[in-house]
Write a structure and sequence with these properties.
15 helices; 39% helix; alpha/beta; binds flavin mononucleotide; two-stranded antiparallel sheet; single chain; 442 residues
Length: 442
């Protein structure tokens, strides 16, 4: 049935440039990367073409800058169990993905912590040109101690990181906006390429950054990349509401999604003079689809059986910035304060609707898919769940967390996408060419 008045889903494939993304232990699943090597060009071309065949808005390449080292004060378990390790540099695969596709957007996670805004802007503008306007930047500032250790710095606290990030963005906007639209003359007869009066020199002297110079790139198709953010603390939500065009969050159930949607829309309207609903709210979802429910259940069990318990502990220790090996497996996480990603920790706290969750349970839930809701069933079951999250939770779309790759995205594309289209809840074709156009559709 076609329901034209209901909003259509935006879809992102959530993955990393590594042997294993966010679902721990998937590298050992019998269907993972059969015939593919994760670091090969062919693998990324195929992944990109699969997502474009499924008319996804974009691939979302997550990243962190170094292996976590919080668990037992070491990265041993992370290395041993392939907990997001090895992970290769994310922007290196962007031109490969862009070159293999014509419409698919590419969201790339790049940290502001150890890179000057000048080179960040130059890199992102260059990628926006190469992709003909299909780049998004997932803005992060490095929440993990291991990243600061690897770069030889002492980690700063959350408030300080956001203050610095505010100034970072100020410099980025100055650079991206410094070329006027008609600055390039390209008049071969006179030899004048660009009008210097229309290419403004940026002068920035701030608390954290100094920048004096012109942006080195011509204005890119989107002007600046689409800005993505996933801050989940109070300060992080304000940052996202101020700057982002799409915001990512993980909530284990529809009530939590609804609360978050209300909170974000309120911040947009009352603090930042942006209209509620103008920023796309994208929620995490893990799907396990099959032709029949029992087949899907079997698949789900097979996925869970791949999770290594010690690797799961190492991952929660890394993401939440606390050594969980120091707690008893039966301690209740609701009684523990974490310095790491607060919003993701809440996905664990509410994983059982607010009932106590032990450390052991938390590790296994999180290792399966970051505390995202898991939709297990037939294409119709999964589409029902997605519709519920859109209609009752305020989701504008979903970041689909990878299980085994590229198979999970092939299955979603072949089985779930047609079901969503039949219901009028997903596009039948790309309407625009740039990523911003895809995201602004409906
Ligand atoms: C869904 C989701 C995905 C995220 N992906 C990344 C990532 O790939 N790399 C990263 O460094 N941080 C990532 N983060 C962390 C946040 O962007 C943010 O830096 C972190 O949550 C700390 O800010 P907060 O305390 O305001 O939440 C992610 C957070 C969420 C909720």
């Amino acid at each position: 049935m076609n329901r034209p008045n209901k909003k259509k889903a935006h879809l992102l494939g959530f993955i990393q440039n590594g042997v294993n993304s966010h679902a721990t232990g998937m590298w050992r699943h019998p269907k993972d990367k059969v015939g593919w090597h994760f670091a090969s060009i062919e693998y990324w071309q195929h992944m990109a073409r699969t997502m474009e065949r499924g008319l996804f808005d974009a691939v979302f390449i997550a990243d962190e800058l170094a292996p976590y080292n919080t668990h037992e004060d070491s990265s041993d378990a992370v290395v041993k169990w392939a907990v997001q390790c090895p992970t290769h540099e994310p922007s290196t695969i962007v031109p490969i993905i862009a070159g293999a596709t014509r419409h698919l957007g590419v969201g790339v996670t790049l940290s502001s912590a150890f890179e000057h805004p000048y080179s960040m802007c130059r890199r992102l503008s260059s990628l926006d040109h190469l992709s003909n306007g299909r780049i998004a930047w997932n803005i992060v500032s490095s929440y993990s101690k291991s990243e600061w250790d690897a770069y030889g710095h002492t980690m700063t606290e959350r408030g300080g990181r956001y203050e610095r990030l505010e100034e970072y963005m100020e410099v980025c906007y100055k650079l991206w906006d410094s070329w006027e639209p008609d600055a390039i003359v390209a008049d071969k007869a006179s030899g004048i390429y660009a009008d210097p009066d229309k290419v403004h020199v940026v002068h920035h002297e701030g608390k954290y950054y100094r920048c004096h110079g012109r942006h080195f790139c011509a204005p890119s198709p989107q002007g600046r990349p689409v800005l993505w953010q996933a801050g989940s603390s109070d300060r992080g939500r304000d940052f996202a509401a101020k700057h982002a065009e799409a915001i990512f969050a993980v909530h284990p159930n529809v009530e939590r999604m609804k609360q978050y949607t209300g909170d974000l829309n309120e911040r947009l309207a009352t603090r930042f003079n942006r209209s509620p609903g103008s920023v796309k709210l994208i929620y995490g979802l893990q799907t396990v689809v099959a032709e029949t429910r029992s087949e899907a259940q079997d698949k789900h069990e097979r996925i869970k059986a791949c999770i290594p318990p010690e690797g799961a502990m190492a991952w929660i220790s890394g993401h939440f910035g606390l050594d969980f090996s120091k707690y008893s497996p039966d301690d209740v996480v609701q009684n523990i304060e974490v310095p790491g990603i607060q919003g993701l920790f809440e996905s664990i706290i509410y994983a059982k609707g607010g009932a106590p969750v032990t450390v052991k349970e938390a590790a296994m839930i999180y290792a399966q898919g970051m505390g995202m809701p898991v939709a297990v069933g037939t294409p119709a079951d999964i589409a029902d769940q997605m519709e519920h999250y859109m209609d009752d939770g305020g989701a504008d779309g979903f970041m689909l967390i990878a299980t085994y790759t590229p198979g999970c995205f092939e299955e979603f594309t072949d089985l779930v996408v047609p079901e969503l289209q039949r219901r009028g809840r997903f596009r039948d074709r790309y309407a625009g060419t740039t990523l911003r156009e895809h995201l602004l559709e409906n």
